[in-house]
Amino acid sequence: MAEIAFRRPDMLLKLTATSVGLAMASAKLISYHINVFSEKQKDIQYVNDLKDAYMFSSEQDEMYAEAFTEISAQVDNLLMELDEENE
Q: Does 6 have pLDDT greater than 90?
């Protein structure tokens, strides 16, 4: 290697430029993958938050449905009492 660099200094310059180019390309690739990983983490967090919101909403819907059923039964009982009193 030293002999080639001594005989042809332009080859050493080309080798150095190629090495710098590869280092830059590697740095860009690593940076890209870090950004992609960060975005994927954000997407995963968003999906988990959305799932939790739907689960909470589902629980609330069930609670309201049960409450409505209970109220509806009470109203039916009151209407039946009113009918019995009117007869």
A: no
Cα 83–chain centre separation: 57
Q: DSSP string spanning the chain?
A: -HHHHHH-HHHHHHHHHHHHHHHHHHHHHHHHHHHHHHHHHHHHHHHHHHHHHHHHHHHHHHHHHHHHHHHHHHHHHHHHHHHHHH-
Gap between the Cα atoms of 15 and 28, Å rounded = 20
Pair of tokens at residue 59 = 């629980």
Residues sharing a CB contact under 8 Å with residue 12, sequence separation 6 or more, in sequence order: 4, 5
Joined tokens for residue 28: 């860009």
pLDDT for 27-70, tens place per residue?
A: 999 999 999 999 999 999 999 999 988 888 888 888 888 888 88
Confidence (pLDDT) at 1: 66
How many CB atoms within 10 Å of residue 5?
A: 14
